[in-house]
Amino acid sequence: MQNQQLMTSLSNGVQMPLLGLGVYDMYKQEAEQAVLWALETGYRLIDTASMYRNEAEIGNAVRQSGINRNDLFITTKVNNTDQGYEKTLKAFDVSLQKLNLDYVDLYLVHWPIKFTRKFTWKALERLYHEGRIKAIGVANYLIPFLEELQIEATEIPMVNQVEFSPYLYLEDLLNYCKERKIQLQAYSPLVRGQRMSDPKLLSMAEKYKKTPAQIILRWALQLGVSTIPKSSNLDRLKENFDVFDFEISEQDMAYINSFNENLRIVEDPMELY
């Protein structure tokens, strides 16, 4: 399958694929094989995290693939227990060593931990200014966290990765990020399969002769939202990548927006931290 995917330009000019592979809850050989299959399929963005405990396997797959490093976009994140200025600097070194890469394309604050997030962001800014990271960003940051960060930050996050789907349509956050040139990125876009039999979604799939998953991913891409569905199944990997040959109409996009029911798979960041 040809790599025909869409790219987005981050606020600092770095190019990032809009569609990527998330590798949460994949371990050892499963993670390595999934990334190899994904790269063979055409994916060029791979999203991992220290918390996932598979950075070494992701790095192995990247090297085995034989793909030029400059053509890949690798994201990792600082773990909650590693937050704070000095601890984050050390954690980044550990992640880089496990990945066995010269640099990371995107490094994220994994969660807005109350007492450490400000210092963690300062560490990311330092790593970015030193040229060790191509771009920096945050994850699970809703508007209040972004507002707080803006007070002291010298760099605005280039990416904000949050749970986002037609069933958790965070329109205010999407608009906020667009206005500030923060690229929104969706994890758990497929709601971990919980809404694949929704009659409204099935009607869209039938109309466009696509699968429910493909409708959701195409919807996100047309909103300008980067999306990182997770799968270690080769057929699903190919299915999730086969979303570049059709377009959802404006009317149907509005209809899919109406699917929102504030359904969260992961904890609400506002309640957790």
Automatic annotation (TrEMBL):
Binding site for substrate: 110
SUPFAM superfamilies named among the record's database cross-references: NAD(P)-linked oxidoreductase (SSF51430)
Record CDD domains: AKR_AKR1-5-like
Xref: InterPro entries: AKR, Aldo/ket_reductase_CS, NAD(P)_OxRdtase_dom_sf, NADP_OxRdtase_dom
Domain of life per record: Bacteria
Active site: 52 (proton donor)
Keyword Oxidoreductase annotated: yes
Pfam family, one: Aldo_ket_red
GO molecular function terms listed in the Swiss-Prot or TrEMBL record: oxidoreductase activity, acting on the CH-OH group of donors, NAD or NADP as acceptor
Span of domain NADP-dependent oxidoreductase: 26-260
Keywords from the named record: NADP, Oxidoreductase
Residues at the site labelled Lowers pKa of active site Tyr: 77
Sequence similarity: Belongs to the aldo/keto reductase family.
Name this protein carries in UniProt: Aldo/keto reductase
